[in-house]
Amino acid sequence: MSKFRVFTTFVVIALFSASFVLADGNKSRTEELIDKHQSIIDKAKVKDWKTYADCANDLVSMRICNEEILSWINKSIEIKETIFNRTVKGDFLLLAGEYKNAKKEYVKAISLAQKSGKKNVIPDLQWKILIAMGVENYDNFHAAQK
């Protein structure tokens, strides 16, 4: 097995392990974190897309995934579409198990990066697409084995 394939397999397994360990978490702690971030959003200006995206990103990075967070991401995109909020939406969808939609968001972020001349972020977005593909194939493989 090639080193790349071993590394990719390790990354996919590590991501799944972290998701299973952290996804179930303490519900009251999750609600507390969401409320804390909601209070930050409540203080933000009407057109402050960055606060919505930052709050969503914080929670998604802690493996917290619910409809309220998705609404913050969508509001951020509605105010101003950026590479950052498209990437956060991709991360959210990946966490939610919507791999194809996550890949679409990462592709939109790449398109924005190309248009804005920020090509330095494209390799990271390409890695996110590869991870989404790997997780999707992992799930499909194990579903076929049952």
Strands, helices and their partners?
Layout: H1 3-24, H2 27-43, H3 49-61, H4 67-79, H5 83-95, H6 99-116, H7 122-145
Helix pairs in contact: 1-7, 2-3, 3-4, 3-5, 4-5, 5-6, 6-7
Structural features, described:
The protein has helices spanning 3-24, 27-43, 49-61, 67-79, 83-95, 99-116, 122-145. It has seven helices and no strands. With 146 residues, the protein is mainly alpha-helical.
Q: How would you briefly describe this protein structure?
A:
With 146 residues, the protein is an all-alpha fold. It has helices at 3-24, 27-43, 49-61, 67-79, 83-95, 99-116, 122-145.
Distance, first to last CA: 25 Å
Low-confidence stretches: 17-24
Tell me how many strands there are.
0
Could you report the average pLDDT, rounded to the nearest whole number?
87
Keywords, please?
146 residues, mainly alpha, 7 helices, 82% helix
